[in-house]
């Protein structure tokens, strides 16, 4: 990494109190919840200070921040601005897909057997409407394209799949899978939470129809924030699973509201719900600004480089077994490994303030833009014992 870029990442690290050396915490758990930066906390404090007295109208700055989220969110995933909306979590966009796509009784939805539950239950709920949900067997606990191809039938209408699998960091080949979906006439829905903000994705090249990602992990935003994408030409074909008074354009003229014939936004905004959580909107806009300033490709390279150094250590010690894929196209900013008595090791890491996760029998490490080599060195020091 060039020196100027190294300096920018070092400066970004200083924005996160959790990374301060005096805290003696090594936070390697962004795949669970990303820590909040100091500028983001300042945005929250600023809003709540105003909210105590309500003497300042925050509608205009809040809606400007929402526009910024849509624009920066579109940049993160290489979409058009009018294809991206503000959602409250990953399940928000997945519910738009499940209840908005024109599915009928007898249609079939394909899911991987190793999906996170948020990408399962919106689809399972469709069983009440006579829509069948079929779980695809995995291979080595990863999505397998050959198994997917064999499972497609004349009734199959949707594949809903994670960008990155939550427990082992396996990054699916969305470009190849999206091509198959388009050729076979399937809607391609993607749960993007475990990659968006840290891993490069182009929803256009991957031919994704609907994409949804909570922002509390890799987008380093508060809980209750997120974004969703709906392909432009698909938007008018979706049923509105819900409607809000802010699904139409009031042009912020909230003193004259007796107009009940306004058209819905001709963009992803028609699927948003209001009233918005202003404090978290300001905070998310701040977080996306930081990610945009560094660049997702640079963040991805930074994260993978740190994991490379951990892999070098683990590979030289027979005690440890790698769980995550090291294939370039399938690796991500999540890395899992295991050993005998892994739960005991996990407890020891936590005791030494190495914050990580234990998932499916393995230690899950997730590094992000605020981590550096000293964090990996601290982890390795404990692993050597």
H and E string: HEHHEHEHEHEHEEEHHEEHEEEH
Helix content: 25-40%
Rounded to the nearest angstrom, the radius of gyration is 22 Å
Structural class: alpha/beta
Q: How many DSSP-defined strands?
A: 13
Determine the strand fraction and express it as a percent band.
5-15%
Strand order of the largest sheet: 2-8-7-6-5-3-4
CA-based shape: globular
- CA(first)-CA(last) distance: 31 Å
The low-confidence runs, each spanning 5 or more residues with pLDDT under 50, are none
Number of helical regions? 11
What is the typical, i.e. mean, pLDDT?
A: 97
Q: Outline the biggest β-sheet.
A: 7 strands, mixed
Account of the 3D structure:
It is a single chain. With 385 residues, this protein is α/β, with parallel strands linked by helices. Helices cover 35% and strands 15% of the residues. It has eleven helices and 13 strands. It has helices at residues 3-13, 38-51, 59-77, 90-100, 121-124, 145-151, 174-184, 278-294, 296-315, 342-351, 373-383; strands at residues 26-27, 84-87, 108-112, 132-136, 156-162, 187-191, 210-214, 226-230, 320-322, 334-339, 354-355, 357-359, 362-366. The protein is globular. The two termini are 31 Å apart.
Structural key phrases:
385 residues; alpha/beta; four-stranded antiparallel beta sheet
Brief description of this entry?
By secondary structure, this protein is of the alpha/beta class.
Layout: helices, strands, pairs:
Layout: H1 3-13, E1 26-27, H2 38-51, H3 59-77, E2 84-87, H4 90-100, E3 108-112, H5 121-124, E4 132-136, H6 145-151, E5 156-162, H7 174-184, E6 187-191, E7 210-214, E8 226-230, H8 278-294, H9 296-315, E9 320-322, E10 334-339, H10 342-351, E11 354-355, E12 357-359, E13 362-366, H11 373-383
Parallel strand pairs: 1-11, 3-4, 3-5, 5-6, 6-7
Antiparallel strand pairs: 2-8, 7-8, 9-10, 10-13, 12-13
Helix pairs in contact: 2-8, 3-8, 9-11
């Amino acid at each position: 990494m060039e020196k100027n870029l190294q300096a920018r990442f070092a400066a970004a690290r200083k924005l996160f109190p959790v990374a301060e050396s005096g805290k003696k915490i090594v936070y390697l758990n962004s795949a669970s919840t990303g820590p909040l930066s100091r500028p983001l906390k300042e945005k929250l404090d600023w809003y709540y200070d105003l909210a105590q007295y309500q003497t300042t109208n925050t509608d205009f700055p809040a809606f400007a921040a929402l526009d910024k989220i849509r624009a920066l969110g579109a940049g993160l995933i290489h979409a058009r601005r009018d294809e991206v909306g503000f959602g409250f979590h990953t399940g928000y966009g997945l519910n738009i897909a499940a209840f908005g796509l024109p599915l009928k009784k007898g249609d079939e939805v394909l899911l991987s057997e190793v999906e996170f539950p948020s990408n399962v239950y919106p689809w399972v709920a469709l069983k009440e409407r006579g829509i069948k949900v079929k779980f695809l067997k995995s291979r080595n606990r990863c999505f397998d394209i050959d198994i997917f191809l064999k499972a497609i039938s004349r009734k199959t209408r949707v594949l809903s799949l994670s960008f990155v699998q939550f427990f082992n960091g396996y990054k699916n080949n969305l470009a190849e899978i999206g091509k198959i979906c388009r050729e076979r006439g399937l809607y391609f829905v993607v749960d993007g939470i475990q990659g968006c903000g840290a891993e490069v994705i182009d929803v256009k090249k991957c031919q994704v129809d609907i994409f949804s990602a909570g922002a509390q992990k890799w987008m380093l935003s508060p809980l209750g924030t997120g974004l969703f994408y709906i392909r432009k030409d698909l938007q008018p074909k979706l049923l509105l699973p819900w409607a809000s008074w802010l699904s139409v354009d009031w042009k912020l003229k909230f003193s004259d509201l007796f107009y009940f014939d306004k058209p819905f936004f001709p963009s992803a905004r028609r699927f948003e719900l209001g009233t918005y959580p202003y404090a978290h909107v300001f905070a998310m806009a701040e977080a996306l600004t930081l990610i945009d300033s560094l660049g997702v490709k640079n963040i991805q390279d930074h994260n993978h480089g740190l994991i490379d150094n951990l892999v070098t250590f683990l590979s030289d010690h027979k005690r440890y077994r790698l769980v995550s894929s090291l294939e370039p196209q399938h690796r991500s900013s999540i890395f899992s490994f295991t050993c005998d008595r892994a739960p005991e090791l996990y407890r020891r890491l936590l005791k030494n303030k190495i914050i990580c996760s234990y998932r499916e029998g393995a230690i899950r490490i997730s590094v992000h833009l605020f981590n550096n080599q000293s964090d990996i060195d601290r982890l390795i020091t404990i692993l050597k014992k």
